Protein backbone atom coordinates (compact mmCIF):
# COMPACT_ATOMS: atom_id res chain seq x y z
CA UNK A 1 0.00 0.00 0.00
CA UNK A 2 1.29 3.45 -0.92
CA UNK A 3 2.23 5.72 1.97
CA UNK A 4 0.90 3.23 4.45
CA UNK A 5 2.24 5.00 7.50
CA UNK A 6 0.84 8.36 6.55
CA UNK A 7 -2.47 6.66 5.88
CA UNK A 8 -2.48 4.97 9.28
CA UNK A 9 -1.78 8.20 11.12
CA UNK A 10 -4.41 10.16 9.23
CA UNK A 11 -6.98 7.41 9.71
CA UNK A 12 -6.31 7.47 13.44
CA UNK A 13 -6.79 11.20 13.47
CA UNK A 14 -10.07 10.91 11.66
CA UNK A 15 -11.25 8.21 14.01
CA UNK A 16 -10.56 10.62 16.81
CA UNK A 17 -12.87 13.17 15.24
CA UNK A 18 -15.53 10.54 14.66
CA UNK A 19 -15.40 9.44 18.27
CA UNK A 20 -15.35 12.90 19.71
CA UNK A 21 -18.65 14.07 21.07
CA UNK A 22 -18.17 17.70 20.36
CA UNK A 23 -15.83 19.85 18.38
CA UNK A 24 -13.99 22.14 20.72
CA UNK A 25 -10.68 23.90 20.66
CA UNK A 26 -8.97 21.03 22.40
CA UNK A 27 -10.05 18.58 19.72
CA UNK A 28 -9.05 20.92 16.91
CA UNK A 29 -5.63 21.52 18.44
CA UNK A 30 -5.11 17.81 18.89
CA UNK A 31 -6.18 17.18 15.32
CA UNK A 32 -3.87 19.83 13.96
CA UNK A 33 -0.95 18.37 15.90
CA UNK A 34 -1.73 14.88 14.62
CA UNK A 35 -1.83 16.05 11.02
CA UNK A 36 1.40 17.98 11.44
CA UNK A 37 3.13 14.97 12.93
CA UNK A 38 1.89 12.63 10.19
CA UNK A 39 2.97 14.94 7.37
CA UNK A 40 6.35 15.79 8.86
CA UNK A 41 7.07 12.08 9.14
CA UNK A 42 6.36 11.82 5.41
CA UNK A 43 9.04 14.43 4.80
CA UNK A 44 6.69 17.23 3.90
CA UNK A 45 8.30 20.65 4.12
CA UNK A 46 7.76 22.17 7.57
CA UNK A 47 6.54 25.50 6.30
CA UNK A 48 4.00 23.84 4.04
CA UNK A 49 2.74 21.71 6.90
CA UNK A 50 2.19 24.78 9.04
CA UNK A 51 0.51 26.59 6.18
CA UNK A 52 -1.88 23.71 5.75
CA UNK A 53 -2.82 23.40 9.39
CA UNK A 54 -3.20 27.16 9.69
CA UNK A 55 -5.56 27.06 6.73
CA UNK A 56 -7.60 24.30 8.37
CA UNK A 57 -7.83 26.28 11.61
CA UNK A 58 -8.68 29.54 9.84
CA UNK A 59 -11.49 27.95 7.89
CA UNK A 60 -12.91 26.40 11.03
CA UNK A 61 -12.96 29.77 12.74
CA UNK A 62 -14.31 31.78 9.84
CA UNK A 63 -16.75 29.46 8.15
CA UNK A 64 -20.05 28.22 9.42
CA UNK A 65 -21.01 24.61 8.77
CA UNK A 66 -23.26 24.49 5.69
CA UNK A 67 -26.85 23.44 6.23
CA UNK A 68 -27.20 19.76 6.94
CA UNK A 69 -23.69 19.30 8.25
CA UNK A 70 -22.85 19.08 11.93
CA UNK A 71 -19.73 20.75 13.24
CA UNK A 72 -17.98 17.43 13.32
CA UNK A 73 -18.85 16.58 9.74
CA UNK A 74 -17.77 20.03 8.75
CA UNK A 75 -14.42 19.51 10.42
CA UNK A 76 -13.90 16.30 8.46
CA UNK A 77 -14.94 18.04 5.26
CA UNK A 78 -12.41 20.81 5.79
CA UNK A 79 -9.59 18.40 6.59
CA UNK A 80 -10.43 16.36 3.50
CA UNK A 81 -10.68 19.38 1.21
CA UNK A 82 -7.49 20.95 2.45
CA UNK A 83 -5.56 17.70 2.11
CA UNK A 84 -6.86 17.32 -1.44
CA UNK A 85 -5.83 20.88 -2.25
CA UNK A 86 -2.46 20.18 -0.69
CA UNK A 87 -1.98 17.09 -2.81
CA UNK A 88 -2.70 18.76 -6.10
CA UNK A 89 -6.35 19.76 -6.21
CA UNK A 90 -7.65 17.97 -9.25
CA UNK A 91 -6.81 15.10 -11.52
CA UNK A 92 -4.79 16.05 -14.57
CA UNK A 93 -5.43 13.76 -17.48
CA UNK A 94 -3.38 13.14 -20.58
CA UNK A 95 -5.31 13.57 -23.78
CA UNK A 96 -4.56 11.32 -26.69
CA UNK A 97 -5.88 13.04 -29.73
CA UNK A 98 -3.00 13.71 -32.14
CA UNK A 99 -1.85 10.77 -34.17
CA UNK A 100 0.62 9.89 -32.94
CA UNK A 101 0.43 11.54 -29.53
CA UNK A 102 3.96 11.74 -28.18
CA UNK A 103 4.88 11.42 -24.53
CA UNK A 104 8.50 12.03 -23.64
CA UNK A 105 9.85 10.99 -20.25
CA UNK A 106 12.68 12.98 -18.71
CA UNK A 107 14.52 12.85 -15.41
CA UNK A 108 17.71 12.07 -13.57
CA UNK A 109 19.54 8.72 -13.41
CA UNK A 110 17.69 5.86 -11.85
CA UNK A 111 14.40 7.57 -11.04
CA UNK A 112 12.47 5.15 -13.25
CA UNK A 113 12.12 6.64 -16.75
CA UNK A 114 12.72 3.41 -18.64
CA UNK A 115 10.59 1.29 -16.32
CA UNK A 116 7.80 3.86 -16.45
CA UNK A 117 7.95 3.97 -20.27
CA UNK A 118 7.09 0.28 -20.28
CA UNK A 119 4.37 0.79 -17.67
CA UNK A 120 2.77 3.59 -19.67
CA UNK A 121 2.86 1.50 -22.83
CA UNK A 122 1.00 -1.27 -21.06
CA UNK A 123 -1.44 1.19 -19.49
CA UNK A 124 -2.49 2.68 -22.83
CA UNK A 125 -2.32 -0.58 -24.73
CA UNK A 126 -4.85 -1.99 -22.29
CA UNK A 127 -7.10 0.93 -23.11
CA UNK A 128 -7.12 0.07 -26.75
CA UNK A 129 -4.42 2.37 -28.14
CA UNK A 130 -1.81 1.27 -30.61
CA UNK A 131 1.39 2.05 -28.76
CA UNK A 132 5.10 2.19 -29.69
CA UNK A 133 8.12 2.68 -27.46
CA UNK A 134 11.24 4.56 -28.45
CA UNK A 135 14.62 4.81 -26.76
CA UNK A 136 16.67 7.96 -27.29
CA UNK A 137 18.97 7.12 -24.40
CA UNK A 138 22.45 7.09 -25.91
CA UNK A 139 24.13 7.26 -22.50
CA UNK A 140 23.33 4.08 -20.67
CA UNK A 141 24.95 1.21 -22.58
CA UNK A 142 22.06 -1.22 -22.24
CA UNK A 143 19.25 1.34 -22.34
CA UNK A 144 17.80 0.16 -25.63
CA UNK A 145 18.04 -3.49 -24.55
CA UNK A 146 16.24 -2.70 -21.27
CA UNK A 147 13.37 -1.03 -23.11
CA UNK A 148 13.23 -3.83 -25.67
CA UNK A 149 12.73 -6.38 -22.94
CA UNK A 150 9.90 -4.34 -21.48
CA UNK A 151 8.28 -4.02 -24.90
CA UNK A 152 8.59 -7.76 -25.46
CA UNK A 153 6.68 -8.45 -22.23
CA UNK A 154 3.64 -6.64 -23.56
CA UNK A 155 4.06 -7.05 -27.29
CA UNK A 156 4.74 -3.42 -28.00
CA UNK A 157 7.30 -2.56 -30.72
CA UNK A 158 10.43 -0.77 -29.50
CA UNK A 159 12.34 1.62 -31.74
CA UNK A 160 15.91 2.75 -31.24
CA UNK A 161 19.44 2.38 -32.44
CA UNK A 162 22.03 1.30 -29.89
CA UNK A 163 24.85 2.23 -32.25
CA UNK A 164 23.84 5.84 -32.68
CA UNK A 165 25.01 8.59 -30.36
CA UNK A 166 22.51 11.16 -31.56
CA UNK A 167 19.00 11.07 -30.06
CA UNK A 168 17.55 13.43 -32.66
CA UNK A 169 18.84 11.26 -35.51
CA UNK A 170 17.36 8.17 -33.91
CA UNK A 171 13.99 9.84 -33.78
CA UNK A 172 14.17 11.08 -37.36
CA UNK A 173 15.16 7.61 -38.55
CA UNK A 174 11.81 6.19 -37.40
CA UNK A 175 9.56 9.24 -37.60
CA UNK A 176 7.71 7.92 -40.65
CA UNK A 177 6.96 4.55 -39.10
CA UNK A 178 5.72 6.11 -35.89
CA UNK A 179 2.84 7.69 -37.77
CA UNK A 180 1.14 4.31 -37.69
CA UNK A 181 0.65 4.52 -33.94
CA UNK A 182 -1.82 6.31 -31.68
CA UNK A 183 0.78 6.86 -29.02
CA UNK A 184 4.58 6.93 -28.91
CA UNK A 185 6.37 6.87 -25.59
CA UNK A 186 9.90 8.21 -25.73
CA UNK A 187 12.49 7.28 -23.11
CA UNK A 188 15.40 9.70 -22.73
CA UNK A 189 18.80 9.56 -21.03
CA UNK A 190 19.30 10.72 -17.46
CA UNK A 191 22.23 12.42 -15.74
CA UNK A 192 23.43 12.71 -12.16
CA UNK A 193 22.04 16.19 -11.96
CA UNK A 194 20.20 18.61 -14.13
CA UNK A 195 23.29 19.94 -15.92
CA UNK A 196 23.29 22.53 -18.68
CA UNK A 197 24.30 19.76 -20.97
CA UNK A 198 21.23 17.66 -20.12
CA UNK A 199 18.97 20.67 -20.49
CA UNK A 200 20.46 21.32 -23.91
CA UNK A 201 20.04 17.70 -24.99
CA UNK A 202 16.43 17.55 -23.80
CA UNK A 203 15.55 20.79 -25.48
CA UNK A 204 17.12 19.57 -28.71
CA UNK A 205 15.15 16.32 -28.61
CA UNK A 206 12.04 18.18 -27.71
CA UNK A 207 12.41 20.56 -30.60
CA UNK A 208 12.76 17.69 -33.03
CA UNK A 209 10.00 15.58 -31.52
CA UNK A 210 7.63 18.32 -30.42
CA UNK A 211 6.16 16.03 -27.77
CA UNK A 212 2.59 16.57 -26.59
CA UNK A 213 3.60 15.75 -23.06
CA UNK A 214 6.97 16.07 -21.38
CA UNK A 215 6.73 14.19 -18.14
CA UNK A 216 9.32 14.40 -15.41
CA UNK A 217 9.94 11.10 -13.63
CA UNK A 218 10.91 11.50 -9.97
CA UNK A 219 11.46 8.79 -7.38
CA UNK A 220 9.24 9.40 -4.35
CA UNK A 221 12.16 8.47 -2.13
CA UNK A 222 13.73 11.90 -2.63
CA UNK A 223 10.98 13.35 -0.43
CA UNK A 224 10.78 17.11 -0.33
CA UNK A 225 13.87 17.42 -2.56
CA UNK A 226 11.41 16.71 -5.36
CA UNK A 227 10.44 20.35 -5.21
CA UNK A 228 13.79 21.60 -6.49
CA UNK A 229 13.90 18.94 -9.19
CA UNK A 230 10.38 19.63 -10.33
CA UNK A 231 10.97 23.37 -10.33
CA UNK A 232 14.19 23.30 -12.34
CA UNK A 233 12.88 20.80 -14.87
CA UNK A 234 9.71 22.84 -15.10
CA UNK A 235 11.60 26.03 -15.77
CA UNK A 236 14.22 24.71 -18.17
CA UNK A 237 12.54 21.86 -20.01
CA UNK A 238 8.99 23.04 -19.93
CA UNK A 239 7.65 19.80 -18.44
CA UNK A 240 3.90 19.31 -18.62
CA UNK A 241 3.58 16.94 -15.71
CA UNK A 242 5.24 14.61 -13.25
CA UNK A 243 5.24 10.91 -12.60
CA UNK A 244 6.31 9.96 -9.08
CA UNK A 245 7.73 6.47 -8.84
CA UNK A 246 8.65 4.10 -6.00
CA UNK A 247 5.81 5.43 -3.89
CA UNK A 248 5.07 2.02 -2.46
CA UNK A 249 8.43 1.64 -0.86
CA UNK A 250 9.08 4.94 0.81
CA UNK A 251 7.77 6.82 3.79
CA UNK A 252 8.85 10.05 2.15
CA UNK A 253 6.43 9.92 -0.77
CA UNK A 254 3.99 12.35 0.78
CA UNK A 255 6.75 14.92 0.74
CA UNK A 256 7.47 14.28 -2.92
CA UNK A 257 3.82 14.46 -3.96
CA UNK A 258 3.19 17.68 -2.12
CA UNK A 259 6.48 19.24 -3.18
CA UNK A 260 5.52 18.73 -6.80
CA UNK A 261 2.07 20.17 -6.43
CA UNK A 262 3.45 23.47 -5.13
CA UNK A 263 5.58 23.92 -8.22
CA UNK A 264 2.46 23.82 -10.34
CA UNK A 265 3.68 20.67 -12.05
CA UNK A 266 0.75 18.28 -12.11
CA UNK A 267 1.31 14.71 -11.00
CA UNK A 268 -0.20 12.51 -13.71
CA UNK A 269 0.73 9.01 -12.62
CA UNK A 270 2.30 7.29 -9.67
CA UNK A 271 4.58 4.27 -9.81
CA UNK A 272 3.82 1.75 -7.11
CA UNK A 273 6.18 -1.15 -7.77
CA UNK A 274 8.81 -2.58 -10.05
CA UNK A 275 6.46 -4.61 -12.21
CA UNK A 276 5.09 -3.38 -15.50
CA UNK A 277 1.53 -3.20 -14.16
CA UNK A 278 2.48 -1.13 -11.12
CA UNK A 279 1.25 2.23 -12.36
CA UNK A 280 -1.77 4.24 -11.26
CA UNK A 281 -3.32 7.44 -12.49
CA UNK A 282 -3.14 10.11 -9.86
CA UNK A 283 -6.21 11.85 -8.57
CA UNK A 284 -5.77 13.90 -5.37
CA UNK A 285 -9.35 13.19 -4.29
CA UNK A 286 -9.01 9.47 -4.71
CA UNK A 287 -5.57 9.49 -3.17
CA UNK A 288 -6.66 11.37 -0.05
CA UNK A 289 -9.73 9.19 0.17
CA UNK A 290 -7.54 6.11 0.12
CA UNK A 291 -5.15 7.55 2.67
CA UNK A 292 -8.05 8.24 4.98
CA UNK A 293 -9.47 4.79 4.43
CA UNK A 294 -12.58 5.86 2.55
CA UNK A 295 -13.29 6.28 -1.11
CA UNK A 296 -14.61 9.79 -0.93
CA UNK A 297 -15.85 12.59 1.26
CA UNK A 298 -19.35 11.13 1.45
CA UNK A 299 -17.96 7.91 2.84
CA UNK A 300 -16.04 9.81 5.47
CA UNK A 301 -19.05 11.84 6.49
CA UNK A 302 -21.12 8.70 6.71
CA UNK A 303 -18.62 7.32 9.17
CA UNK A 304 -18.83 10.42 11.30
CA UNK A 305 -22.62 10.20 11.32
CA UNK A 306 -22.51 6.74 12.80
CA UNK A 307 -21.05 8.03 16.01
CA UNK A 308 -23.21 9.59 18.71
CA UNK A 309 -24.22 13.20 18.17
CA UNK A 310 -23.66 16.02 20.57
CA UNK A 311 -27.39 16.35 21.19
CA UNK A 312 -27.81 12.68 21.96
CA UNK A 313 -25.00 12.82 24.45
CA UNK A 314 -26.37 15.93 26.10
CA UNK A 315 -29.81 14.34 26.47
CA UNK A 316 -28.16 11.47 28.21
CA UNK A 317 -26.34 13.81 30.54
CA UNK A 318 -29.56 15.65 31.40
CA UNK A 319 -31.38 12.44 32.14
CA UNK A 320 -28.64 11.35 34.44
CA UNK A 321 -28.81 14.62 36.31
CA UNK A 322 -32.56 14.57 36.66
CA UNK A 323 -32.41 11.19 38.32
CA UNK A 324 -34.92 9.77 35.86
CA UNK A 325 -33.05 6.68 35.22
CA UNK A 326 -34.08 3.08 34.81
CA UNK A 327 -32.42 0.06 33.28
CA UNK A 328 -33.74 1.06 29.86
CA UNK A 329 -31.79 4.28 30.13
CA UNK A 330 -28.77 2.37 31.26
CA UNK A 331 -29.25 0.15 28.23
CA UNK A 332 -29.66 3.11 25.87
CA UNK A 333 -26.67 4.71 27.45
CA UNK A 334 -24.62 1.63 26.82
CA UNK A 335 -25.69 1.41 23.23
CA UNK A 336 -24.67 5.02 22.78
CA UNK A 337 -21.43 4.41 24.56
CA UNK A 338 -20.50 1.46 22.44
CA UNK A 339 -20.90 3.73 19.40
CA UNK A 340 -18.87 6.44 21.00
CA UNK A 341 -15.85 4.54 22.06
CA UNK A 342 -14.29 5.68 25.28
CA UNK A 343 -16.54 5.71 28.31
CA UNK A 344 -14.84 8.81 29.64
CA UNK A 345 -16.55 10.78 26.85
CA UNK A 346 -20.01 10.14 28.21
CA UNK A 347 -18.95 11.39 31.57
CA UNK A 348 -17.51 14.51 30.04
CA UNK A 349 -20.99 15.30 28.84
CA UNK A 350 -22.43 15.33 32.33
CA UNK A 351 -21.95 18.84 33.67
CA UNK A 352 -19.42 18.73 36.43
CA UNK A 353 -18.05 15.30 35.57
CA UNK A 354 -15.73 16.63 32.91
CA UNK A 355 -13.29 17.94 35.43
CA UNK A 356 -13.24 14.88 37.61
CA UNK A 357 -10.20 12.76 37.03
CA UNK A 358 -11.03 9.09 36.82
CA UNK A 359 -8.28 6.51 36.96
CA UNK A 360 -7.47 5.15 33.52
CA UNK A 361 -7.37 1.50 34.54
CA UNK A 362 -10.72 1.86 36.22
CA UNK A 363 -12.21 3.06 32.97
CA UNK A 364 -10.70 0.13 31.13
CA UNK A 365 -12.08 -2.39 33.58
CA UNK A 366 -15.41 -0.67 33.31
CA UNK A 367 -15.40 -0.86 29.54
CA UNK A 368 -14.80 -4.59 29.68
CA UNK A 369 -17.63 -4.86 32.09
CA UNK A 370 -19.91 -2.83 29.88
CA UNK A 371 -19.73 -5.48 27.20
CA UNK A 372 -21.05 -8.08 29.63
CA UNK A 373 -23.71 -5.74 30.87
CA UNK A 374 -24.96 -5.30 27.41
CA UNK A 375 -25.45 -9.07 27.09
CA UNK A 376 -27.29 -9.06 30.39
CA UNK A 377 -29.59 -6.21 29.43
CA UNK A 378 -30.25 -7.88 26.09
CA UNK A 379 -31.58 -10.85 28.03
CA UNK A 380 -33.97 -8.82 30.16
CA UNK A 381 -37.65 -8.37 29.39
CA UNK A 382 -39.11 -4.89 29.06
CA UNK A 383 -40.75 -5.22 32.43
CA UNK A 384 -37.48 -6.17 34.02
CA UNK A 385 -35.76 -3.22 32.47
CA UNK A 386 -38.41 -0.76 33.59
CA UNK A 387 -38.67 -1.81 37.16
CA UNK A 388 -35.79 -4.08 38.03
CA UNK A 389 -35.97 -3.74 41.80
CA UNK A 390 -39.59 -4.85 41.91
CA UNK A 391 -39.62 -7.73 39.49
CA UNK A 392 -36.17 -9.31 39.36
CA UNK A 393 -36.06 -12.12 41.87
CA UNK A 394 -33.59 -14.98 42.22
CA UNK A 395 -35.32 -17.14 39.63
CA UNK A 396 -35.22 -14.30 37.13
CA UNK A 397 -31.58 -13.60 37.93
CA UNK A 398 -30.81 -17.17 36.99
CA UNK A 399 -32.78 -17.00 33.77
CA UNK A 400 -31.14 -13.75 32.74
CA UNK A 401 -27.67 -15.07 33.54
CA UNK A 402 -28.28 -18.15 31.40
CA UNK A 403 -29.57 -16.07 28.53
CA UNK A 404 -26.61 -13.73 28.66
CA UNK A 405 -23.99 -16.40 29.19
CA UNK A 406 -22.75 -14.83 32.42
CA UNK A 407 -22.80 -15.81 36.08
CA UNK A 408 -25.65 -14.91 38.41
CA UNK A 409 -23.13 -12.89 40.38
CA UNK A 410 -22.56 -10.69 37.37
CA UNK A 411 -26.27 -10.07 36.94
CA UNK A 412 -26.54 -9.15 40.60
CA UNK A 413 -23.60 -6.85 40.32
CA UNK A 414 -25.26 -4.97 37.49
CA UNK A 415 -28.41 -4.49 39.48
CA UNK A 416 -26.43 -3.31 42.43
CA UNK A 417 -24.60 -0.85 40.25
CA UNK A 418 -27.87 0.36 38.86
CA UNK A 419 -29.22 1.00 42.33
CA UNK A 420 -26.16 2.93 43.31
CA UNK A 421 -26.27 5.03 40.20
CA UNK A 422 -29.88 5.82 40.82
CA UNK A 423 -29.18 6.79 44.38
CA UNK A 424 -26.35 8.99 43.29
CA UNK A 425 -28.43 10.64 40.62
CA UNK A 426 -31.07 11.49 43.19
CA UNK A 427 -28.44 13.08 45.38
CA UNK A 428 -27.15 15.04 42.40
CA UNK A 429 -30.60 16.28 41.72
CA UNK A 430 -30.81 17.57 45.28
CA UNK A 431 -27.46 19.27 44.97
CA UNK A 432 -28.20 21.14 41.80
CA UNK A 433 -25.01 22.13 40.08
CA UNK A 434 -22.50 21.27 42.70
CA UNK A 435 -18.87 22.13 42.24
CA UNK A 436 -16.62 19.47 40.77
CA UNK A 437 -14.82 19.19 44.09
CA UNK A 438 -18.10 18.56 45.88
CA UNK A 439 -19.07 15.91 43.40
CA UNK A 440 -15.75 14.21 43.60
CA UNK A 441 -16.05 14.05 47.34
CA UNK A 442 -19.50 12.64 47.05
CA UNK A 443 -18.46 10.03 44.56
CA UNK A 444 -15.81 8.87 46.98
CA UNK A 445 -18.31 8.73 49.78
CA UNK A 446 -20.52 6.55 47.67
CA UNK A 447 -17.67 4.15 47.09
CA UNK A 448 -16.88 5.59 43.73
CA UNK A 449 -20.51 5.92 42.71
CA UNK A 450 -21.32 4.89 39.22
CA UNK A 451 -17.70 4.28 38.47
CA UNK A 452 -17.00 2.58 41.75
CA UNK A 453 -17.05 -1.04 42.82
CA UNK A 454 -14.84 -1.94 39.94
CA UNK A 455 -13.43 -4.88 41.76
CA UNK A 456 -16.39 -5.45 43.98
CA UNK A 457 -17.84 -8.81 43.16
CA UNK A 458 -20.40 -8.63 45.95
CA UNK A 459 -23.63 -10.38 45.15
CA UNK A 460 -27.05 -8.83 44.93
CA UNK A 461 -28.59 -8.06 48.35
N1 LIG B 1 9.94 -0.11 -6.17
C1 LIG B 1 9.88 0.55 -7.32
N2 LIG B 1 10.93 0.56 -8.12
C2 LIG B 1 10.86 1.21 -9.27
C3 LIG B 1 9.69 1.91 -9.66
N3 LIG B 1 9.95 2.48 -10.86
C4 LIG B 1 11.22 2.13 -11.18
N4 LIG B 1 11.78 1.37 -10.24
C5 LIG B 1 13.12 0.81 -10.17
O1 LIG B 1 14.08 1.84 -10.20
C6 LIG B 1 15.26 1.40 -10.84
C7 LIG B 1 15.65 2.38 -11.94
O2 LIG B 1 14.66 2.37 -12.95
P1 LIG B 1 14.93 2.79 -14.44
O3 LIG B 1 13.63 2.72 -15.11
O4 LIG B 1 16.05 2.01 -15.02
O5 LIG B 1 15.37 4.27 -14.22
P2 LIG B 1 15.83 5.32 -15.30
O6 LIG B 1 15.29 6.63 -14.90
O7 LIG B 1 15.50 4.84 -16.66
O8 LIG B 1 17.40 5.34 -15.09
P3 LIG B 1 18.52 5.81 -16.12
O9 LIG B 1 18.20 5.16 -17.42
O10 LIG B 1 19.77 5.35 -15.51
O11 LIG B 1 18.49 7.30 -16.17
C8 LIG B 1 14.96 0.01 -11.38
O12 LIG B 1 15.48 -0.94 -10.49
C9 LIG B 1 13.45 -0.06 -11.36
O13 LIG B 1 12.97 -1.38 -11.18
C10 LIG B 1 8.57 1.90 -8.78
O14 LIG B 1 7.52 2.48 -9.01
N5 LIG B 1 8.71 1.19 -7.63
MG1 LIG C 1 16.64 4.48 -18.34
Structure write-up:
- The chain has 461 residues and is of the alpha/beta class.
- The chain has 21 helices and eight strands.
- It has helices spanning 4-19, 25-41, 46-62, 71-86, 113-126, 143-154, 167-178, 196-209, 226-237, 253-263, 284-291, 297-306, 310-322, 327-340, 343-349, 360-378, 382-386, 388-391, 394-404, 408-431, 436-445; strands spanning 101-106, 131-135, 158-159, 183-187, 213-219, 241-245, 267-271, 279-281.
- A hairpin with a 7-residue loop joins strand 7 and strand 8 (279-281).
- The longest helix is centred in the C-terminal third of the chain and has 24 residues, at 408-431.
- Bound molecules: guanosine-5'-triphosphate and magnesium ion.
- Magnesium ion (MG) binds next to helix 5.
- Magnesium ion binds at residues 113-114, 137, 140, 143, 187.
Amino acid sequence: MVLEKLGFSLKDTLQKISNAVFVDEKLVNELVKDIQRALLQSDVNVKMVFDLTKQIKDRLMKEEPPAGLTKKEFLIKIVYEELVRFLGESESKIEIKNKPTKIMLVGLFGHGKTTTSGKLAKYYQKRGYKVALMSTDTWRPAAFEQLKQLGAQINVPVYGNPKSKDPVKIYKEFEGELKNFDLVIIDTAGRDALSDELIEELNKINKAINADERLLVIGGDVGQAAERQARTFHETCNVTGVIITKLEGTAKGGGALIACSVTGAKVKFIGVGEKIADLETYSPERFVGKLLGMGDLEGLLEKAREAITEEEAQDLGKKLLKGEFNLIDLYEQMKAMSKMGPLGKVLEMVPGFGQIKLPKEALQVQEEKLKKWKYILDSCTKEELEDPEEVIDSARVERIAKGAGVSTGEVRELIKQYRQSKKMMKTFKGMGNGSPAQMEKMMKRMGGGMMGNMKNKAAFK
